[in-house]
Amino acid sequence: MSTPRPQPDGREAYRHFAPIATRWEDNDAYGHLNNVVYYSLFDTAVNRYLIEAGALDIHKGRTIGLVVETHCNYFASVEFPQMVEAGIRVAHMGASSVRYEIGIFATGEPLCAARGHFVHVYVDRDTRRPVPLPDTLQNALQELKV
């Protein structure tokens, strides 16, 4: 029994969109964004959302998110100088973890060029031990839940 091939999502599958400019250095030798760049786009979109929502203080906050799992499927090429929009949704919230799902869309395209996820485990900055999701974070994530 084979697993069905992943399919791209439409924009309606996401709760928030973050515009992101691609950079000259993002292209690889084949003329499109290198696969590792997509993970940077995922991280940028989610962390920008959390900072703007007041749920993450990257310099002084007691709670930080550590990535413990990532994955990406690719459906279409994107290249510099295209602008992209990262669609964000929260698929699961645990006591101290969150699964973010992100679709990377070329501006104006109805289907994502790539779709991925990563899981943050939220920990105490000093001890690196898991902590419950702070209320401000939970509130910001509620806006993204599917």
Q: What does this molecule look like?
A:
The model has no long low-confidence stretch (mean pLDDT 96). This protein has 2 helices and 5 strands, in the order βαββββα. It has 146 residues and is α+β, with helices and mostly antiparallel strands. A 5-stranded antiparallel beta sheet has the order 1-3-4-5-2. The longest helix is centred in the N-terminal third of the chain and has 18 residues, at 35-52. Strand 3 (83-93) and strand 4 (97-106) form a beta hairpin. The chain has helices at residues 35-52, 135-142; strands at 16-21, 63-74, 83-93, 97-106, 114-124. The radius of gyration is 16 Å and the shape is globular.
Summarize the structure.
The chain is α+β, with helices and mostly antiparallel strands and 146 residues long. The chain has two helices and five strands; from the N terminus they run βαββββα.
Spell out the blueprint of helices and strands.
Elements: E1 16-21, H1 35-52, E2 63-74, E3 83-93, E4 97-106, E5 114-124, H2 135-142
Antiparallel strand pairs: 1-3, 2-5, 3-4, 4-5
Helix content: 10-25%
In terms of quaternary structure, the protein is: single chain
Strand order of the largest sheet: 1-3-4-5-2
Order of helices and strands: EHEEEEH
Question: Structural class given helices, strands, pairing?
Answer: alpha+beta
The geometry reads as: globular
Q: Could you tell me the number of beta strands? A: 5
- In DSSP terms (H or I, runs of 4 or more residues), the helix count works out at 2
Terminus-to-terminus distance? 29 Å
Largest sheet entry:
5 strands, antiparallel
Q: Which regions are unreliable across 5 or more consecutive residues at pLDDT < 50?
A: none
Q: Nearest-angstrom radius of gyration?
A: 16 Å
| Proportion of residues in extended strands | 25-35%
Averaged pLDDT, please? 96
